[in-house]
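Input record (one chain):
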Amino acid sequence: MSKETLTAYKQAGLDLLGSVEGLSDAQLHAAPEGEWSIAYIVHHLFDAETYFATRYMNILIYENPAIIPFDEEKLPAALAYENRSVSGSLQGLAGIHVVMEDLLSHISDEKWNRTGNHPELGAVTLTQVLAKQTGHLAEHVQQIKKLIA
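The corresponding structure, as predicted from the sequence alone:
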């Protein structure tokens, strides 16, 4: 089992939730010129968590399933970030994260090496896909910290 990757994933989720705890509405919606607001980052991370959860499950269920990339630049307009609730996205992200933590903590060691097929990267293991999302979360936590500094 990839305990290290799963532990890092759990921590990244906690770090994200901690980074936005107690922020005012003004802080959540302020955006420097040409950058996303913290609210947009939260919505993006909920959407990414949804995509990645589907990837984890597909890798566990199917033999070498196709991994469909997403274009993060299209998400805000297509998924109405300006009208979405930050608390709703945070609750959804936290819920998906907890379910994936639980699911992944009970899989066998060999399942961590199951693969999906990414159109640009080729075969990627479940461990690699989880590590990618873990890094993605951590990068955005740092972005949030910079925005509130």
